Amino acid sequence: MAVVVITKAMTDEAFAATAAQSSPAAKQFKTGDAVVYPGHGVGRVDHVGMQDVAGHKIEMIQISFAENQMTIRLPAAKVATTGLRKLSSKADAEKAIAALSGRPRISKVMWSKRAQEYQARINSGDLLALAELLRDLRRNAGSQDGSFSERQIFETALDRFASEIATVRGEDKADTSQQLIALLIKAQPASVAAAAEKAAAKEKAEAKDGDTEAED
User: How crowded is residue 144: how many other Cβ atoms within 10 Å of its Cβ?
Assistant: First the structure.
């Protein structure tokens, strides 16, 4: 019986032939596109094309994140598993914003499990999931009453959400963030909203005074 010996050269050749094929998933992205990469947020495609990696030609998508000055190279074959997607449409963005005013979902499970669930929503890259998380934690908007851990999760979710909404609308992220906080405060019960608005106004005034002192 004949024995076929599979050499490293043969496996390398097979790997290269497979890798060199253009990935259908990568065709939806082009240079200059704004994209959302779960775990990192909004970035921009710098390049899509074949690159030499360890002697193999692999189709790669290079994405830069200006805010944190980071660049990643993602194999096109990994697009589906990483959740890389195009920016949300204006209609989907407005739908997500509307969800901020919905009734919060109250969870009675242990904080450790809730924290894991919240982090999973943030890392999902799903805009509506982020909106629902902000809705559920909106008591943190304009207030420092929540726990430190919950506040951190709220601020991370707000940062990711505001980043995509601002990009979709073509607005400044800081302005968008303030608008979203105002919406979250407005959706709270009247007494809570009034206190939150007062706290938010005080925080904004203190920040403005700090900027003035820095200029002096």
Answer: 9
**pTM score, two decimals?**
0.74
pLDDT digits (tens, 9 = 90+) for 166-215: 999 999 999 999 999 999 999 887 644 445 455 555 555 655 555 555 55
- DSSP β-bridge partners for residue 34: 44
Contacts of 19 by beta carbon, 8 Å cutoff, 6+ apart: 56, 57, 58, 59, 77
Question: Buried b vs exposed e over 177-216: b needs ≥16 C-beta within 10 Å?
Answer: bebbbbbbbebbeeebbeebbebbeeeeeeeeeeeeeeee
CA angle at 54 for the pair 49 and 57, rounded to the nearest 5°: 30
Sorted by where each starts, the structural domains of the chain and their CATH numbers stand as: 22-84 (2.40.10.170), 88-203 (1.20.58.1290)
Query: Over the stretch 134-152, which tens digit does the pLDDT of each residue have?
Result: 999 988 887 777 788 999 9
**Coil, strand, or helix at residue 48?**
strand
Place of tokens 């259908």: 24
φ/ψ region of 195 (left if φ > 0, alpha if ψ in -120 to 50, else beta) reads alpha
Q: Report the side by side order of strands in the sheet with 34-37.
A: 70-75, 56-65, 41-53, 34-37, 85-86
